[in-house]
Amino acid sequence: MANALQDIDDGEAVRVSPITRLRGELRLPGDKSISHRAAILAALANDESVIENFSSAADCSATLACLRALGVDIDRDGSTVRIKGVGSSGLREPSQTLSADNSGTTMRLLAGVLAGLPFTTTITGDESLLRRPMRRVAEPLRLMGAEIELQSNGCAPMRVTGRQPLRAIEYKTPIASAQIKSAVLLAGLAANGTTRLQEPQPTRDHTERLLREFGVPVETNGNAVSLEGGSSLQGRSLLIPGDFSSAAFFIAAAISLPGSDLLIRDVGLNPTRTGFLATLQAIGAEIEILDQRTQSGEPVGSIRVRGLTSPKRDRIEIFGQGVADAIDELPLVAFLAASIGCEMELREAEELRVKETDRIAATVTNLTSMGAVIEEREDGWLLRRGGRLQGAQLSSFNDHRIAMCCAVAALSADGPSTIEDARACVRVSLPEFWQMLVSVSE
Ligand code: S3P
To answer: Taking the CB of residue 325, how many other CB atoms lie within 10 A of it?
Structure first.
């Protein structure tokens, strides 16, 4: 079949027509979450680090730009990034306000670093980031002794006045969030004593793994994690695994189109990220993991996925730990479930309301436009089993992941769809998305 994507004009809308199947091989740019952390830890290290397969996401470029503004010498050549570490207290007061653009990870993790430095920094972001909650990181960092000023609604711009040294704390966070955990651990590096954090469910552990790679001992015990302040970090050579959350869109598209056969090479398979695969395997999807190994402290492998003719189970239920293990893939599970005729119930996922957009509302609105029957709940949704989705007028709500979810569902719909505000917003995590999709579409 001809190209799945047709530009309607030079604007932001993308028209996606149904295709027959996906076939071929893909290799994804480096994981976004790991790239942010690798850049930050390399900046705090005592010597140079070389990071290969660094993410192409705009979010990670925002982190590099902030680190440069804090005085770090960074040389980027395609996906290879060389960072001359300045040591744990070598960052310099920036001459202007920093911008995290659309990136919550940049803002929250840097807040943790800035909390332990003896100067004041203001961090701002785009319209979406300025609507996202920041008290969740401000609270523990204030307890550690930093001064954090937010707007009266608890959002950024955030003004951080650090303190040296910080006080080590034992903190129990009410929200399962790797960004909160990472901000506290990064601040803990500059604290006197042992910083300990407990979360309601374990979240992605990239910060812990990378800290160990840089030579900092980190202890984990169930939901709790701790480290000693004052360790110095040693520069490293790192190879970042392909981004599992980006791979997930292609995996979902392949499953929804019988006859598909797709090989995705060298993807991160950290178990705190791959809840999506477990869900797919439970409904009978054919997924093979090949060439498993550990690379720069992270599990990596290749994923071979084939189209699914009929699901073995037609109900998917996600809550509790399942939410943390697939936090960025939850909307995608709903779009896929609707495409292959499964019911899906999501609970305890109110965090989706404070992502780049309200992803509960965005998922329900778009799937309803495609003819699905889906009930919106405060903490999730209930999608009823239904027939084939119809092509429709959809909206990304300027959220990269929602744009890609809509594209995936449109590939197997009955008729073409138009996705508003979709072309450029994928740059936030995967600028190559449209081109990669065309390369494996038949
Ligand atoms: C991220 C953690 C998650 C995730 C986000 C990236 C990270 O956010 O949704 O895309 O890199 O730490 P929360 O910590 O808010 O759950």
So the answer is: 23
2, pLDDT greater than 80: no
Atom of ligand 1 nearest to the CA of 180: 14
| 32-239 is classed CATH 3.65.10.10 | yes
Q: Alpha carbon of 312 to those of 166, 276, 337, 412: distances in Å? A: 53, 16, 13, 19
88 lines ligand 1 (CB under 6 A): no
Q: With a 6 A CB cut-off, is 327 part of the ligand 1 pocket?
A: yes
Is residue 412 over pLDDT 50? Answer: yes
Residue 55 alpha carbon to ligand 1 centre in Å: 15
pLDDT 10s digits, 24-61: 999 999 999 999 999 999 999 999 999 999 999 999 99
Pick the CATH number of 5-29+242-439 from 3.10.450.710, 3.40.50.10710, 3.65.10.10, 3.40.50.720: 3.65.10.10
Which bin fits 100, alpha (ψ -120 to 50), beta or left (φ > 0)? alpha
Whole-prediction pTM: 0.98
Q: Please work out whether the CB of residue 185 comes within 6 Å of at least one atom of ligand 1.
A: no
